[in-house]
Amino acid sequence: MLDIDATTRAKLRASGSLVLDQDGDEVFAGLSLAESLFFWEWEKDPDDGHASAEAALYLELKHKHLVARSAGLLGDSSTSI
Predict the structure, then answer these.
(1) In angstroms, rounded to a whole number, what is the distance separating the alpha carbons of residues 41 and 57?
(2) What are the beta bridge partners of residue 27?
(3) Which of 13, 23, 30, 65 is 20 to 30 A from 75 in CA distance terms?
(4) pLDDT tens-digit map of 28-63
């Protein structure tokens, strides 16, 4: 489970950002559990001096998440999340 307080978890679920994957793990829409763990750690503290490779990975995951989240909000059944 992601280390997210109850209030934030409720907001993320309501916005379609946080979902349960096929294994029942809490993940960010469009991301695997490992990707979600990395993504959330970055989101919690974006200014902690991450390496540029980590910044590139974060941006890639952010894009992947936003595409999946948008598809989910639009009801696009061709996109699996």
Answers:
(1) 13
(2) 19
(3) 23
(4) 999 999 999 999 998 887 777 677 888 889 999 999
